Amino acid sequence: MMLGRPKDHAQGSIVLPPVHDVVSLDLGGGGRVPARVLERGEDTILLAITVPTRPLSAAQRADMVIEYTGSRGRVRLRGTCVMEDPNDNELVRINSPRSVEVLQEREYVRIRSSRPVLVYSTRDQQQVQSYTVDVSGGGLLLAGPETLGVGEEVRFRLTLTPGVLPVSGTGHVVRTDGHGRLGVVFDEISDLDRRRLVRFIFECQRAERRRGLDKGPDNA
pTM of the full predicted structure? Predict the structure, then answer.
């Protein structure tokens, strides 16, 4: 559900990620690496790739897209990519960034809910038991694990109700915070599982409203 508008956006409407934030660099062909924002200017951004990687090819620099979570959802930017220092493969500057698309995950209602979830890293197939901090029809906020980083692809099995088949799919980590929590955006999830998840969220909201009505002014 890509409701963003491409590069005819006014350049001033683009809000670049703040200094110190971790973003994901989409190198094309399914490759992603995490990077940290070192500097942010009016029409430029300097990034430091935070994992060991080979020097970026000309094709990778031409196709590179910055991905991060902004106030309106998941943002993808493209610009002119240059290596800041010829002797340092990890410093990348993006000049004249422009919007590729804004994926409006925030169209999905998000609720706070702690549910068990099994997470599998596609990198090493390691299975980790975690739980959700909040859930939506477009992704999850997980309480760890710390072994996963921005850009990493995962498989997940989310238990909504004990004894009922979990909701499963794939996604990738788009952000982390200072508490070790991971924002995961869905890449693949069946229509049935997404409907089950949205239905679960609706039922949680309805139960919350009922609790509010039951309390009422006389029961507060």
Answer: 0.54
Range(s) of the domain holding residue 72? 11-105
Q: In a 3-state reduction of DSSP, which class is residue 151?
A: coil
Give 3-state DSSP helix, strand, coil % of the chain, rounded to 5: 20, 45, 35
Residue 204 falls within a domain, yes or no?
Answer: yes
Report d(CA 139, CA 6) in Å as an integer. Answer: 23
The answer to whether position 2 is within a domain reads: no
Do 34 and 112 belong to one domain? no
DSSP per-residue string spanning 79-105? EEEEEEETTEEEEEEEEEEEEEEEE-G
Q: Are residues 157 and 179 in the same domain?
A: yes
Q: What is the pLDDT of residues 148-206, one digit of tens each?
A: 888 888 999 999 999 999 999 999 998 887 788 999 999 899 989 988 998 899 888 88
Residues 6+ apart with CB under 8 A from 112: 133, 134
Rounded Cα distance between 1 and 102, Å, is 9
pLDDT tens string 15-65? 788 888 888 898 877 678 889 899 998 899 999 998 888 888 888 888 899
Supply φ then ψ for residue 14, to 5 degrees.
-80, 125
37 has which bridge partners?
47
